[in-house]
What we know:
The chain is of the alpha/beta class. The chain has helices at 49-52, 61-70, 76-90, 116-126, 128-131, 150-163, 178-181, 191-197, 203-214, 235-238, 258-265, 290-300; strands spanning 96-99, 105-109, 136-139, 168-170, 218-221, 225-228, 267-268, 277-279, 286-288, 304-307, 316-319, 324-327, 341-348, 351-358.
Amino acid sequence: MGCNGPRMLSLKQPYASATVSSSKNWKNIENRTRVLFPLSDEHKDHRMKPYQRPQAIKINIVNFAKQLDNDLLRSEVFVRKVCSDAIEALYHQKNIQRVNGGIKELIVVGDLHGSYASLMKILDLLGNKIKTKSCHFVFNGDYVDRGDGQLSVLMLLAWLRSKYPDHVFLNRGNHEHETMNRKEYHHGRNFVEELEERAYDHLYEECFMSLFNAMPLATIWQDRVFIVHGGPPRPHELRQWESVDTIDRMNGDILQHMIFADMLWSDPTKEASITGWRKGKRGKGGLFSERYTKEFLKAVDCQLLVRSHQCVRGGCDWVHGRKVCTIFSAENYVGLENRGAVIVVKNCGDELKCNCVQF
Ligand SMILES: [Mn+2]
């Protein structure tokens, strides 16, 4: 499997460090206790019971989501178990995971940034498609930071990923990273602040960093649609595309790999003066032109690029001759009064039919 090199950790072992760059003074990170996955049977908690029942798969997802938000998340055992199950489902996937099979419909959800209300609307509208297993859902990163339901969003998606392993997929976003989760924001809290309020901050290194590291960087759906949080990597990284799955994402800081930093941080541009790929103002990643989009899609043998990472007014925005769709799903993000949207893509033989669903 792609990232399973000899250094790949075993789930029976403590996670080898979810190491952070040494420049940070987040104290004693190297010495913190690591949690053991899977959890042992001695962890007993009455709140685990509804989750453990075999018929849990038949539950109403929206009702479960409410219960999770109101009650289940108070149990540390529950949080650890959801993390460890999701990690087990995620880390076997390649860095660029491929989703194929007979299902003709794809739904991509963009940035949520802790907006549990937006996620509830999406599940109210489309959650039945998860239960009936009639489509593939790809959540495209930036689950945490800023909103008021960050842990709820992350845990519900982690739970869905392990309960519906062939139908729900997660990509990593640039906010699934320690530097972003400890940054000060003018609007809203960072993820670590929410964890501190819940007295779960000790779980950040023990569970959540491993969960983020386990997330693939991109998804290729039916060999036709490329889904990534930011965009394509810069030209000299793209020339080494065939080795992208050999990079070990579970250990160390993924931003040390330029190819990954570009994929999580880049944006499309319509500026005529930019004909290829150029560094942008975000400090990481860059700006890619319509011509570069075509080169990239040719290199990865896809027809459409679906990405997120930018708040667009209607939740959905097309550029580059409808070869690039930006999808953003958190409504009223930092008070911007934007709509949220998801994109529904149907594979109809020769063509892809795309429909943005706003809420
Ligand atoms: Mn982003």
